[in-house]
């Protein structure tokens, strides 16, 4: 019965959606002068495009990388200039339509795993430059892998309904009251950088009500939490010097902070290649975000004495050598745990992930030999992980709720899927 009602609802919305799309103008803005392939290569790095469009162990830009979603698996497409399987037969107008409208040359709607809700703000000039660059990469005759999505999410009707509810093509409009540097940063964060794709919470249909609130969200299927970029209690940089925030983007480490998990991949393959000017522009914009004060993660449950003793013992056996007896860390090597906002955030997903799977900062020009943390997934059971994290979150002045065995079990189960 639920499937029938869902089908009826989708059909009704889809009829309205197709009507809206039929009346929506997809007129192309005039193409700029032929785009610079060299500039396009820089922009492709800024957008971290190759990471998704290259399968692990596969040819660059030939697609096929699986992107898991709550609705099934989407596979990235071949962006090489192969005329049959890639974009060799596309025009610059076709490429712009994909970025700006989320449509293929034949009019089919693209799935928003390709972040066109962000890329819609990319200028026509930058689109042309990206296209010019992609025309220069080696052509690979690799067929695109069909998506594997559950019904009804595998239908164009459902996608049209989703777009009618959550997507409007747009362009970046400069804020004339702000500096050129701020506008450049806003353009990169909102468009090619597509920061909101991770740092904004999503609803049950995978959409964000506000693409630019950047107030944090759990990354679907990855079990990592992208912290709020607007909260000083999470990952906000409003009170940071601009150069420190820019350094974190380019080097992966700054001011006692280190990027791990999915953000380490972003720095590794994308933001470390930003120019100093662009990194500073993004930092200026991020520093200006309206503050969103997340509730402090104050301790609400008393820690059981047996858990406290167990956690302290495990910390002494496995953690003290790097992080210090009092969680002070080692400068330029191991981050402090005392007073570390990554430790005391209400969402504990990242802490559990790091203990189970290890923590590996990116190797960058500014930090070529980063110190990493080994995984403990085979050494510590769920009770041990919960105990040691509870010890860390409640020691040396840290005041955060304990981590439960269930918290760990959920993360471990997600990592094994």
UniProtKB/TrEMBL annotation:
**GO function terms (MF aspect):** electron transfer activity; heme binding; iron ion binding; oxidoreductase activity, acting on CH-OH group of donors
A cellular component term from Gene Ontology for this protein is:
membrane
Tell me yes or no: is Metal-binding among this UniProt entry's keywords: yes
Quote the record's binding site residues for heme c 1.
Answer: 49, 52-53
The reply to whether Aminoacyl-tRNA synthetase figures as a keyword in the UniProt entry is no
What does the Swiss-Prot or TrEMBL cofactor note state? Binds 3 heme c groups covalently per subunit.
Task: Kindly give the InterPro entries that the UniProt entry links to this protein.
Answer: Cyt_c-like_dom (IPR009056), Cyt_c-like_dom_sf (IPR036909), Cytochrome_c-type_DH (IPR051459), Membr-bd_ADH_cyt_c (IPR014353)
Tell me the keywords, alphabetical order: Heme, Iron, Metal-binding
Superkingdom, according to UniProt? Answer: Bacteria
Cofactor(s) this protein cannot do without: heme c
Sites binding heme c 3 sit at: 319, 322-323
Binding-site residues, heme c 2? 195, 198-199
**Pfam families of this UniProt entry?**
Cytochrom_C (PF00034)
Q: Where is the Cytochrome c domain?
A: 35-138, 180-290, 306-396
Annotated protein name in UniProt: C-type cytochrome
User: Species name for this entry?
Assistant: Ramlibacter humi
Q: What is the lineage of its organism?
A: Bacteria, Pseudomonadati, Pseudomonadota, Betaproteobacteria, Burkholderiales
């Amino acid at each position: 019965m639920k499937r029938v009602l869902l089908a009826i609802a989708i059909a009704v919305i889809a009829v309205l959606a197709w009507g809206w799309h039929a009346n929506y103008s997809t007129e192309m803005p005039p193409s700029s002068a032929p785009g610079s392939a060299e500039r396009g290569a820089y922009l492709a790095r800024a957008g971290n495009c190759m990471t998704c469009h290259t399968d692990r162990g596969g040819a660059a830009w030939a697609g096929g990388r699986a992107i898991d979603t709550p609705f099934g698996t989407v596979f990235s497409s071949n962006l090489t200039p192969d005329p049959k399987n890639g974009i060799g037969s596309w025009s610059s107008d076709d490429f712009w339509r994909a970025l700006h409208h989320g449509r293929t040359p034949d009019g089919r709607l693209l799935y928003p795993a390709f972040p066109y809700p962000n890329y819609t703000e990319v200028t026509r000039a930058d689109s042309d430059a990206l296209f010019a660059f992609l025309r220069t990469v080696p052509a690979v005759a690799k067929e695109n892998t069909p998506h594997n999505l559950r019904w009804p999410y595998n239908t164009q009707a459902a996608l049209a309904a989703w777009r009618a509810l959550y997507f409007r093509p747009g362009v970046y409009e400069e804020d004339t009251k702000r500096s050129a540097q701020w506008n450049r940063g806003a353009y990169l964060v909102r468009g090619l950088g597509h920061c909101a794709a991770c740092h904004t919470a999503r609803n049950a249909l995978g959409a964000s009500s506000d693409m630019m609130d950047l107030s944090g969200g759990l990354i679907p299927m990855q079990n990592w939490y992208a912290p709020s970029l607007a909260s000083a209690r999470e990952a906000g940089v409003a009170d940071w010097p601009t150069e420190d925030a820019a350094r974190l983007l380019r080097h992966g480490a700054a001011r006692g902070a280190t990027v791990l998990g999915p953000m380490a991949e972003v720095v590794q393959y994308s933001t470390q290649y930003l120019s100093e000017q662009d990194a500073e522009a993004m930092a200026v914009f991020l520093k200006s975000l309206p503050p969103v004060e997340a509730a402090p993660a104050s301790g609400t449950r008393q820690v059981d004495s047996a858990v406290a003793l167990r956690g302290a013992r495990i910390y002494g056996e496995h953690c003290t050598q790097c992080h210090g007896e009092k969680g002070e860390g080692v400068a330029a090597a191991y981050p402090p745990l005392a007073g570390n906002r990554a430790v005391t955030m209400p969402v504990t997903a990242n802490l559990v992930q790091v203990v189970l799977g290890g923590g590996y900062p990116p190797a960058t020009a500014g930090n070529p030999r980063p110190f990493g943390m080994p995984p403990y997934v085979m050494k510590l059971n769920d009770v041990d992980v919960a105990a040691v994290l509870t010890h860390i979150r409640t020691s040396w002045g840290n005041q955060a709720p304990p981590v439960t065995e269930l918290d760990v079990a959920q993360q471990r189960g997600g990592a094994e899927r």
